[in-house]
Amino acid sequence: MSLDFNDETFRGDFTFKNSAKAIKRFPFPFPEDSYMYSVNMEPHVPGPVGSVFEHMFDVDEHYVSEMRDRAQVLADDPLRCQSLPHMELAGWDLLELIMESKARDYPHWFSLTKDGNQWHWVNRPLQIEQKFTFLDASTLPYGPMEYITRQTQGDFTLQDQRDDDLWIEAGMVTTQADWSLDFDIGMSFKQWHAPVPLAHQMGIFDRALKFLLKLQHGAPVRRFNWTMTVDPLLDTSPENYPKWGPGKTTMTPQTIGHRQHLRVELQTLHRLPRSNAIAFPIRCYLIRFEELVTVPKWARRLHRVVRDIPDELATYKGFLRNKPLMLEYLAPFDDGQPTSPGFAPE
Amino acid sequence: MSVGAPKIPVVVAEVVEVNDLIKRFRFVRRDGGAMPVFSGGAHVVVEMDDHGVRRMNPYSLMSHPADTMGYEISVRRDEAGRGGSLYMHRHVKPGMEMVLSQPVNLFPLDARAKKHLMIAGGIGITPFVAQMAQVEAMGGRFELHYSVRSPVLGAYVEHLKAHYGPRVHVYHDEHGEKIDLQTLLKSQPLGTHIYACGPKGMIAWVHATAKAMGWPDRAVHSEEFLAPPVGQAFEVQLAASGKSITVQPNQSLLEAIEAAGVEAPYLCRGGACGQCETNVLRCDGHIEHNDHWLTDEQKATNTKIMPCVSRFRGTALILDR
Ligand code: HEM
Ligand code: FES
Questions:
Q1: I need a surface site. Which of A111, A113, A211, A300 has the fewest CB within 10 A?
Q2: Beta strands in A272-306 (DSSP E)
Q3: What is the pTM assigned to this prediction?
Q4: In angstroms, what separates the C-alpha of A211 from chain B's closest C-alpha?
Q5: What is the per-residue pLDDT across A68-90, written as a single tens digit (0 to 9) for each?
Q6: A168 DSSP β-pair partners
Q7: A87 touches B at CB < 8 Å
Q8: Could you tell me the distance, in angstroms and rounded to a whole number, from the CA of residue A203 to the centre of ligand 1?
Q9: pLDDT of A218-232, one tens digit each?
Q10: CB contact at 8 A, A217 and A271
């Protein structure tokens, strides 16, 4: 593996870790000292150099190992990747979006050359070279969505738009925070969001859906979501709950700094041009508590967010049980000083 | 959260007189680059500088969706309208620089349909031209039923027949030919979706006939852009930006807001998409709600207005804009 990428695991011996550089660019999701659901969407425009927003699809030091983990999940459970027949065109739209973005943003790692519909794709980090015919699925080893998302960090879902609603009808989901594509596939926007507490009554899903139905090609948007994960597991799926759920009960004051992770999802939404579908990449970033507290502002703020979060949210996100342990660990880092607005370290 | 897709700076590459009423325009990018691909049924908003008056009219794209070298639209001359189509017909010439919006599709095909049954009237043919090309390329099934006033005014009939053969059926009003919708709908295979685009009366007829024959609403799709109607001039106060403006007889409220330098959201500019919805803070008078978006109850309360097509008569209108 080249120097650019870590050789690490997200299961078994859990050797995943963030470098100093990765900690510095971590997408800390709290712009203020408290958290509640909101329609938090902003244009997905390029951010500062080095930040996770610099490019359309962030490729970081965990890339190669994350892709190895995905291949393992798929080998164990092929239903993590599904696409209803009418979603193939959206899959091609997604493949084009990702290939063009990566080749433009990371020319030293990826290249795409086109001669009409004859395309030539090179992915150097994963040592893949592929000549294929665009829009002809028989020329790729997998369907277009599966092909490209086996080479791209983050989960992906594709939503068809019809009858003034969005329908989740394709996806590659191996790094999820406890929800299941196999269960949700075919559902509409409010159906698949049904388990979320409070947000429905707050009108958040009404407003978000109304906005998304009008999302324009060429004007993607982004939002954050977050939860808590014990041990650096990418795959916290309901299907595998018996494998990872019990881990939550064995954390101690001695191990929490190392085992407890803040899990942040950078979610983006893209209107796709040919299919008129919406692509929803969900990119997961993990950071250990002991890594996070090296940034004083983040440590202070996380303490306040966890302390004041409504029980409904802590329960839904699955950390109510460990909340006292978290507060005990984080409290010493909260000196009561004010924190500056915004996400930045200081 | 504003809709901020970049605009497309273009040059008019070609203007073709299709018949007495219709001209076709082809646009290419000024920098020679590729246009975004689009899906059949999408429209663009064309910005015009009509001797100092800014006009923005939506037109369906009718070029091949995979043709990224240029976009084509057809414009029907409307003598009684506000002047956008007259401007396109009289003043737009090859070589002229113009600006287009990014395409938006408010009339998409249903990807699950086993067959697409398209019903067009007059200039309503344009979105179907792009949709047929797309369905054909994907190997899908479709059938077009197209009514025109007379053979001379049957835009693109020859081209479509030559291309798609027996899948294209043409009806001439002048010869008393009429689509036999009931028989047509009775003979469709399961999984067929119906699409209608054309004059208001035709669209209502398609919906009503299909409904009476038991077709589910979600299998019947239509697109009707309203041209912003002309009317009397009226005054409006914009509370958020602290401006007072006058809307001219042949200007829409949205255009007047934009002309005052106030940013306002929009997508269709035809009363269909809901994007321009604006809160009314005070209304002493009568709002002429011309849109398809607000419910009848909402219209009755006069607390919302769609400035792309709606107008006002009365003494005071204050908007939250
Ligand atoms: C169209 C793309 C979207 C997809 C596919 C999607 C999918 C999901 C899924 C599968 C869940 C987990 C539900 C469960 O517990 O089973 C979820 C949670 C949630 N979603 Fe979405 N979502 C989308 C867009 C949005 C948008 C635009 C918002 C904006 C407000 C939003 C807000 C939320 C919230 C607040 C939660 C709860 C998260 C938590 O507390 O951990 N979603 N979403
Ligand atoms: S802009 Fe679409 S309804 Fe006004």
A1: A113
A2: 278-288
A3: 0.90
A4: 8
A5: 999 999 999 999 999 999 999 99
A6: A159
A7: yes
A8: 14
A9: 989 999 999 999 999
A10: yes
